[in-house]
Design brief:
Structural class: alpha+beta
Number of strands: 20
CATH architecture of the largest domain: Orthogonal Bundle
Helix content: 10-25%
CATH topology of the largest domain: Lysozyme
Largest sheet: 5 strands, antiparallel
Number of helices: 11
Length: 465
């Protein structure tokens, strides 16, 4: 007789322990359904999902429907931190706060009615320093206690149907949140016809300049909440290029790139979003900081969400990259084009730096005791491009005047085929400033293939010095 009694007491004890450990769970609770971006949130949608929403779109929605401040960044950050769908969080906040108009929302920054017990909601509701703090704390609370197995109010699935069993006394809370979530319209770039042309950079750039960059596109408008960031990706820095090529300037030391080491570092153009001004429909002008190191770069522009975060993958629109030259304080560019008769070339040297390039140094100016002045020399040679064949000097003349920033000098190179004995030549253009290889050390001689004859063409090998 004692054995059945012991068995009964044991079963009763286990049942009591289970009932106090976790809330009762209905074995017939439906499984959570996959959330499809942009579609309805039903009672059985998995709330631990990615909304595909952007902060700028949530801000637009709040601006159009409430008097709340921009909170899109806070909702998206909560989703990223806790994995709780931002569209659901937004709908729950709107449902509980009557679109931000409730006393608790206005006075306590409490959008979710957290701790607003039925006996005295205004008294017991928690107060927060900011709406963002409330969104973060509530998202974490929901994740830990409602949407995670073993949580205090885990109802069997990470869904509204399970949550509403314990969230409110009416047990209808999830239905209201579902209706709001499904009615919220958030703008998106997904499937849009936005198409950017390559950015254009105004004027020559020097290290540390504020560059004016114009972006143009077709296919729609871009909201003010969308930000842009710029990166200058090094292709070849002048200092690195010089150390890689044997020349009189090869002793120039290559230094770090803005403190970034390693191969192909990415140099941020600015620490934050690029300031922009709308110049016309479907065109904006951005201001970005150029890198400090002279060289060749690719300018990469990207659209970012409000607050600088990445846009959802489906909303990202490619912006073509563009080649950009950043000049040093002492630098020149070289252009070569065929002469009108097709037998020669026109060489133009332009001072692209900030400082004047001197044409001549007087006696004693350079510390060299010589009766002859030291000149800056322009040299043009023609060769086959092979080290086995000596180049032919086509031009060797001094600068006649100082070359001021932005100024150019043009030189005529006639009858190249007659001078070299070849109809195809590799032209090399260089400028030696006062015999000092360090003046333009961070530069390389310009090269171009020159084809002589009536159909003369020039194929440049580099953008210039």
């Amino acid at each position: 007789m004692r054995r059945p009694l012991q068995t009964f007491l044991t079963i009763l004890a286990v049942a009591l322990l289970v009932s106090f450990a976790v809330p009762a769970v209905d074995a017939h609770v439906p499984r959570a359904r996959h959330y499809r971006v942009g579609h309805a949130i039903t009672l059985d949608t998995n709330l631990l999902s990615t909304s595909g929403a952007s902060a700028w779109a949530i801000n637009d929605y709040l601006l159009a429907t409430t008097s709340l401040p921009p909170l899109g960044k806070a909702f998206i950050a909560a989703e990223a931190r806790y994995g709780v769908n931002a569209r659901f969080l937004l709908a729950a906040a709107m449902h509980e706060s009557a679109w931000g108009t409730s006393y608790i929302a206005r006075r306590k920054h409490n959008l979710f009615g957290y701790n607003a017990f039925d006996r005295d909601p205004s008294r017991y509701a928690s107060a927060y320093a900011t709406y963002a703090a409330n969104i973060d704390a509530t998202a974490r609370f929901i994740k830990d206690f409602y949407l995670t197995p073993g949580g205090r109010w885990w109802g069997g699935a990470p869904t509204l149907r399970s949550m509403q069993r314990f969230w409110s006394s009416s047990h209808q809370w999830g239905i209201g949140v579902s209706r709001i979530a499904s009615s919220i319209h958030l703008h998106t770039f997904a499937g849009s016809a936005l198409e950017f042309t390559a950015p254009s950079v105004s004027g020559g750039l020097h290290g540390g300049d504020q560059a004016s960059v114009q972006l143009k596109w077709a296919g729609g408008t871009i909201p003010a909440g969308v930000e842009f960031v710029a990166q200058f990706v090094p292709v070849e820095l002048d200092a690195d290029a010089v150390t890689a090529v044997p020349s009189t300037a090869a002793n120039a030391q290559a230094g770090p790139v803005d403190g970034v080491g390693g191969a192909s570092p990415i140099i941020p153009a600015s620490t934050g979003p690029a300031p922009r001004a709308r110049s016309m429909a479907r065109s904006i002008t951005l201001t970005v900081a150029a890198p400090s190191q002279p060289g060749s770069y690719l300018l990469q522009m990207d659209m970012r969400d409000t607050g600088g975060g990445n846009l959802p993958a489906a909303q990202r629109v490619r912006i073509p990259r563009v080649a950009v030259r950043v000049w040093g304080d002492r630098a020149v560019s070289v252009d070569v084009e065929p002469s009108l008769d097709g037998t020669g070339a026109i060489v133009r040297i332009t001072n692209t730096g900030r400082l004047a390039i001197p044409a001549i140094a007087s006696r004693g100016e350079t510390g060299v005791d010589s009766a002859d002045p030291i000149l800056s020399m322009v040299t043009v040679t023609g060769s086959t491009g092979s080290a086995d064949v000596a180049p032919v000097t086509l031009l060797s003349v001094p600068l006649d005047v100082d070359l001021q920033p932005g100024a150019s000098r043009t030189f005529d190179i006639p009858a190249i085929a007659s001078a070299t004995g070849r109809t195809m030549n590799w032209l090399a253009v260089s400028l030696s400033v006062l015999g000092d290889p360090n003046v333009l050390a961070a530069s390389l001689p310009y090269g171009a293939w020159m084809s002589n004859g009536r159909d003369a063409t020039v194929q440049a090998d580099s953008a210039g010095q």
